[in-house]
Every structure is written in C-alpha cells, then in structure tokens.
Write a structure and sequence with these properties.
295 residues, mainly alpha, three-stranded antiparallel beta sheet, 8 strands, 44% helix
C-alpha cells in the first residue's frame, strides 16, 4: 500500500492518490489538492515544510544506523515470514488471500496496493530488458484489485528469476526505504521517539500501509495521539507507544484474515515492558509461538 503525489500536471494541479490499506481490497480514492500542495494530509505533518527537517537530520541516526537497520529487517522478517534471514525473501511471492493480490519481496510489495507497481516500474527503468518488464501493463491494470489477470504462473516465475539479479534486489531495497523505512523513521523522530519507537512505526507502516483511514498507519497514529501525548508533545514515550501498539493491535484484530497479533504481544510489547526504548541487544522475542534471538 502506498500514497502517491503526482506533480507537473499540464493544468498545474496536484492529485493525491490514497490507495487502500493492506487488508482492504477497495479501489483507490482520488483526492484533488491545490496546486503547490505538499500532499501531506492532516494525519501526516509536513515536517519538511516547517523548519524541522534540519533538526531531524541533526538527530542521531537511530534505526537508520546500519547495525540497527539490520536488526529492524530481521525483526520484520520474523513477523512476516518466521525467519531472521530477510535477504532470503527477495524472491518470495504468493497470494495470501487478503484482497491485495500477490504479496512479494522483502516487505511484502503487493500487486493490489501500488507499491509493487512502483517497484517494477523503477526496476524496468533501470533494466528495460528485465524478466518483469512485460508484466508492467498487467500490473497497472490490476492495481487496486486482487486480480491475477495477465499475471499468473508466468509472473511469479519471472519474479523469482528477477530476484537473482542484484539490480532487482537493490530496487527492492530502495523502494522499501523510500515508501516505508525513511518516512517512518523521520516521523518517529519528529514525534520524539527513540529507536524502538522508530521500529514500531516502521513495522506498522509496512503492515498496515501508509493510509490515512482508520486501519492505515496515519489513522492509527491519529488514534494513539488522541489518547496519549507523544514525547515531542511532552508526553511519556512509553505511554504513547503503548497507546500506539493498542491501536495497531485493534487494526490487526479487525481484519478478516491474518489476525495474529504476536508481532505486538510477544515482541514489540516485550521490548517496551523491558524499557528497551533504544532497542539494545541482546533481544529475545516470540512470533507465532516461535522464539527468535539476536545476540
């Protein structure tokens, strides 16, 4: 799931495209915005426009530090695929029956939520003769639906073939960072959150999609902020993260499928109860009843 802002239209308008959250197979909603708009919604503060960008950049890297980004990738993979070997997921592809079409790659890019299309288009721009290039028209046609039309077994085979190409793995990394990791970490810093909070935001951004509706990341953040102040607002960081995890858990439980909440109950909540706001190692947690450790 992703949110796009398209600039440079001939009549100088900006259109914000809010695609449905993961787990919601509804069609995209088109929301016109005035010319010159940043595309930020009320749920998504325009941090880069109010003089805070420099302050954010001056903060410690937090989750963006290479060793912590690696930990974040392992934590995410444990919840998404029951493995710490997140690099083994580049070629993974299947339909989970959640209304989002095919789910594939290192953060579960979906054929129905636009992020897969963005990824394949970026890869094709760099490598026009790649195995996935012939499927770009079909991906555009099924975007916003759970349809496999024009895709099918030939597409899944092409995805797995492409995953052997270092350029496709790099494209996955870059799309993950642009759509999910970097926005989540920057917003968490804006909210005064430490490394654990930055991971909580990142995991939720990937899991729920960056939508502004109630079951999207920004809707969940809005609900949490309504019940607890962020650290940047003078609130208690632990209390705020607890409220955010409560809202994220409720969004998971409201889904028709994939309603397991152990990524929160026996992982993130454990780190929070331990007071490990900087996500210091060693770490031990459980997902789906399986225990994972990072020394």
């Amino acid at each position: 799931m992703t949110r796009l802002v398209l600039f440079g239209a001939p009549i100088a308008i900006v259109v914000s495209v809010l695609f449905s959250s993961r787990g919601d197979s509804g069609p995209p909603e088109l929301v016109p915005q005035p010319a010159g708009s940043t595309g930020a919604s009320p749920a998504r503060p325009a941090a880069e426009d109010d003089g805070t960008a420099e302050k954010i950049d001056a903060l410690p890297p937090g989750l963006a530090a290479p060793e912590l980004k690696e930990i974040a990738s392992r934590l995410l993979a444990s919840a998404d695929a029951s493995t710490l070997d997140w690099r083994s997921r580049y070629g993974a592809i299947e339909d989970l029956g959640d209304g989002n079409g095919y789910t594939a790659g290192i953060v579960g890019f979906c054929s129905g939520t636009n992020d897969m299309l963005q990824l394949v288009e970026a890869y094709t721009e760099d490598r026009p003769d790649n195995p996935l290039a012939p499927f770009v028209p079909a991906l555009r046609a099924v975007d916003g639906t759970d349809s496999h039309e024009g895709l099918g077994a030939a597409f899944t085979a092409a995805w797995q073939q492409a995953a052997e190409d270092p350029a496709f793995r790099t494209a996955q990394d870059r799309t993950r960072d642009r759509l999910y990791f970097e926005p989540a970490v920057r917003l968490a810093k804006l909210d005064g959150l430490g490394t654990l909070g930055q991971f909580v935001y990142y995991d939720a951004m990937v899991l729920h999609g960056p939508g502004v509706e109630a079951n999207g990341f920004y809707g969940i953040r809005d609900a949490a902020m309504a019940s607890a102040d962020t650290a940047a607002e003078g609130g208690d960081e632990t209390a705020y993260l607890g409220a955010f995890l409560d809202e994220s858990r409720s969004a998971i439980r409201a889904r028709p499928v994939q309603r397991d909440t152990t990524r929160i109950d026996t992982a993130q909540r454990v780190f929070l109860r331990d007071g490990n706001l900087e996500l210091n190692t060693p770490l031990e947690w459980q997902v789906y009843g399986e225990t994972f450790r990072i020394p």
